Amino acid sequence: MTKVNREAVVTEALGLLDEVGLDAVSTRRLARRLGVEQPSLYWHFRTKKELLGAMAEAAMAPHTTAPLPTPDDDWRAWFLDNTRSFRRTLLGRRDGARLHAGSTPTGDLDRIRRKMEFLVASGVPECDAQMAMLAAGRFTVGSVLEEQADTPPGDSADLPADVPRIDYESAFEAGLALILDGLTHRTAATPRPA
Q: Which of 72, 143, 150, 169 has the most neighbouring CB atoms within 10 Å?
C-alpha cells in the first residue's frame, strides 16, 4: 500500500476536483487515485467536510500569498487589486467558488486583520471597511459561481434574441466599481478623528 501525507491528499484532491468537478469528488475516487484504501484517508481527514476545508484553503494559496498592502499604497487601488486577485484565484479551479463558499479562512486570519488595519489607517471607517470587504468577497463569490455555472460559457442559445449575452468580466468590474464608489463616498463623508 502507498503511504501518503496530508499535503499529497490535498494536492490529489484538487487535481480530482479540476478533472471531475465538485459533485464527483468522493473519498472513494480520491483513494483510488492515490492508490490507497479509502479508510486510510481518515487518518488525515476525519470527514469529507474537513477535506473540503483543506482543499479550499490550499486552492486560495495564490490569493493568500499575494503581497499585503503597504502604507504608501492607495487604498482604492489596493481594494480593486485585492478583489480581482480573489476572483482570479476562484476562477483558477473548476468549481472554485463552490469549493470556497461557506469555508472559514482560518489560515488567512492574520492577513485579513492586516488588510483591515491598512484600510482603517487609510481613513476608511472600521465598520465600513469590514462591510466593504465582506460585500466585495460575497459579490466576488457570487459572480464566480454564476460564471462557473455557465456551461459552456457564454452559451445563451435558449435565451430570446433581445436578451444580451453576459460578459462576466465586465459585469464583475461594474459591480466592483459600485462597491468601491459607495465606500469612497462614505469614507469622504465621515470626518477623520483629530
A: 143
